[in-house]
Amino acid sequence: MGNICAWCGEREPVEGEHWCRRCLDWYNTYGGVHESAYTKHDEINAPPHYIFGPYELRKVLHEWLDSVDIPKGEACDWFSMMQYLFRYSKKGKPARDLDKAMRYLKWIREGYE
Question: Is residue 2 one of the residues assigned to a domain?
């Protein structure tokens, strides 16, 4: 075992494990992410710009969408907005991704006027 969590790279692992308590709890609750997310880059099954430590955007958004009651069109806009916000610092053009996220937020906001 190392001195740092093999998944998030931020905290000390639990004794006898490779992962910290937070990552173990996430994995046990949500099933974690595809193994390729922490062993190699897999642009199809686990794009690195949608994974942060133990968090995979798709799974986080599905959990949120299951807990709210919003129209399908708004859910699509919200999902797209969050994708741009989640990856803006990882894709090389942060201003463009933030502008796109703001466009989706504007469309969501217009639905409440």
Answer: no
Domain that residue 69 falls in: 43-110
Flag whether 36 is in a domain: no
Could you identify the residue written with the tokens 């931020």? 10
Residue 12 falls within a domain, yes or no?
no
Cα angle 98, 49, 82 (rounded to 5 degrees) comes to: 45
The DSSP-derived string for 56-91 is: EHHHHHHHHHHH----HHHHHHHHHHHHHHHHTTTS
Does some domain include residue 28?
no
| Residues 25-34: tens digit of each pLDDT | 766 665 555 4
Query: What residues contact 38, with CB distance under 8 A and at least 6 apart?
Result: 6, 7
The C-alpha atoms of residue 52 and residue 71 are separated, in whole angstroms, by 28
Q: Note the pTM of the prediction, 2 decimals.
A: 0.58
Across the chain, mean pLDDT equals 78
